[in-house]
């Protein structure tokens, strides 16, 4: 009874704390500017099903894709088992589904065990790729101590959780064989039955192992749940809405700024009266970006596919699309903390531009869309780069000199070069 | 001071003037190209507007692409016109550089002209013009059917109106196609340029980075009009290494800016004798004996 009570309190606390942090993320995302991404819902469901649920964009790197799908399927399916663990924890039952499901239960547990083993192995390979093989994709200026640790924490936790799950089953299996207490026979346990011989024979120690692993596993899951909002691992949740809200237009189509349209119309036609528009052109800080840009930042799992295909990055320029996303998230977290501590209008004297992202990075982009094509969860770093260029050009007028010359040429000659428009048709002569 | 700000393409013009590589069709005799103004004055309505673009109008190397497109249009007898001196920049480089004001000014002025001529269908000689006219003009009031010249060429081949001649120079040559970002990833036009090459009976090879994985030439996003940021290599040099690795004799391109960058990459590696860079339009025109 006491253990049920402790379980209830811990479970409620975990859910409450998680909910609070998710609300904070939601609030932070909604600090962004409005953008309508609710059109064409049928297409959006299809994109989400294909890209998030079906992981279609992962396949470009087959090794990572196979390993990732193992962890993903394992995570989703083993979570069915977590439902049983929660019920057992709250009501003091043991393997509550075993008597209800009969033979099917054994089959389910069997498949969970095989998946748990595969998850274990996949995470081990992932750790080796990051720490021993040191794949180039996982390094870079933005891959500082925290992002590297974050990845290792996630993988280690998953290995520990799977180990606890299998060890728990192994002790349970052995107790079942001994027909001890409430440990009813519940299937063949294909993986843990192989571990069982390694465990002590005494029922007392077996019960301790089984209970310890049970508690470690479920408390580990609740702790991991609460780690998500602080980690890149949050993608397991937010990747779904993020792909639903994907940009559906052709990649090369950039939005036409409505605020500019109003001003240009007023310039071309003096009788046109624009609705009063306030706010700055482009983005200096995260709050000038759209909420979708900010959701992108929380979705980024720092895999580096974007940076590894970026032509600027590959040729040694400072620009790294992954850094753009990580900077945006870091700055947004900082802005959120400022609001929590100092209220809504606090100015900390910092901004995404210059404090986080340098102009040199922004001007190195060729707008080639390799990053958006590569992202497995449809993040759009290019749109953030463009918004920041817009701020630099339209609010500060501090574009590089050569680009200002190009602007002057377009304005005066109708071409980006210094040629007279009268010569435009000379090619036919 | 102005001279220091000469951009790549102007430098390109002076460089390429005595470049032995500049096969493609020669400058040749003046060609008769109808303008929209003249057509309308004569009471005629052309079926198609050919949007030449700034590079196609002013860059000497790209002018040859423009002339090839005109020859193809004339050969198949499509009624078309150009805007001539009435054409102006679509605003693409301004927009990619962040100058939305200038872009929309250009767009609205162009749309006014295009709508006044009641233009319905446009073919462009440049993926950047293509993207801007097709995707970014509609919400500003410019609604046209816009195709890139490689799509037109594919269509004409499918209709049997273009057919490589016997003894055309591309038979058996090793050709690779460089995807322009604004055509490929940007608008998912991957097949049209390739199908124009497939009829040549050539040895077609793909570079290791192609189609949706294609590597940018380095010119997009207004990079054409500025010096690159410091790094360890130029993007076009990196790209041409893919072509060298594929052992291509001809790199086919579909964008005048890619053309400049790729040719510079070839020069950097001193491969002018081994690798030619030709536009799909030039290749098609030559193969058809135009």
From TrEMBL, chain A:
Keywords: 4Fe-4S, Iron, Iron-sulfur, Membrane, Metal-binding, Oxidoreductase, Transmembrane, Transmembrane helix. Residues 291-321, 355-387 form the 4Fe-4S ferredoxin-type domain. GO terms for cellular component: plasma membrane. The chain crosses the membrane at residues 6-23, 63-87, 107-129, 150-168, 180-200, 212-230. It comes from the Bacteria. GO terms for molecular function: 4 iron, 4 sulfur cluster binding; metal ion binding; oxidoreductase activity. This is (Fe-S)-binding protein.
